[in-house]
Amino acid sequence: MSSTVLAQIEELLLAKKIAYNMLRHEPVKTSAEAAAVRGVPLASGAKALICKCDKEMIMFVMPADRRLAGKEIRRQTGYRKLRFASEDEVWELTGLRPGSIPPFGSLFSLPTFCDPALAENERINFNAGDHAVSISMQYDDYLETEAPNLLVCSEKTE
């Protein structure tokens, strides 16, 4: 299914006439490995996390050098419970393994919340449904394509 997700991303970007670069590389497991193989700052990585908020699955997108801010999300949204989706839940929703999920919740019928801190990067980078394929695109083009809800959902790691 991962090649299907890549094809869906390419179709989406082509339909909106969005320029992007694709890079095939050795499989990576962490955001730091991905940044190194791409030759870009860690903060430019658009980390996509799927969480269960109360009874709803939601995608949160943030710079890869940050972590999810659960208390802040609950404070802003009113959700009472928030937890990371299990690997099985991620697979069931996306057909993908954690770490390969692109920041397009719309591809999986998931609401998408993007941390405004990602805007500090002119270009963002992300895995495109595969641990060995990355896409780089303008942040503004990402906003136009996905139209995520903007929400402070991350905090700096210590």
Q: What is this structure's SSE topology?
A:
Blueprint: H1 2-15, E1 20-24, H2 31-38, E2 46-53, E3 56-63, E4 66-68, H3 70-77, E5 82-84, H4 87-94, E6 112-114, E7 123-127, E8 133-138, H5 139-146, E9 149-150, E10 154-156
Parallel strand pairs: 3-6, 6-9
Antiparallel strand pairs: 1-8, 2-3, 2-5, 4-10, 7-8
Q: What is this entry, summarized?
A:
This protein has 158 residues and is of the alpha+beta class. The protein contains five helices and ten strands; from the N terminus they run H-E-H-E-E-E-H-E-H-E-E-E-H-E-E. The longest helix has 14 residues, at 2-15.
What can you see in these coordinates?
- The chain is of the alpha+beta class.
- The protein has a single domain, classed as YbaK/aminoacyl-tRNA synthetase-associated domain (YbaK protein), CATH 3.90.960.
- Helices cover 29% and strands 29% of the residues.
- The chain has 5 helices and 10 strands.
- It has helices at residues 2-15, 31-38, 70-77, 87-94, 139-146; strands at 20-24, 46-53, 56-63, 66-68, 82-84, 112-114, 123-127, 133-138, 149-150, 154-156.
- The strands form 3 sheets. The protein has a 5-stranded mixed β-sheet with strand order 5-2-3-6-9, with no helix packed on it. The protein has a 3-stranded antiparallel β-sheet with strand order 1-8-7. Strands 4-10 form a two-stranded antiparallel sheet.
- Strand 7 and strand 8 form a beta hairpin.
- The protein is globular.
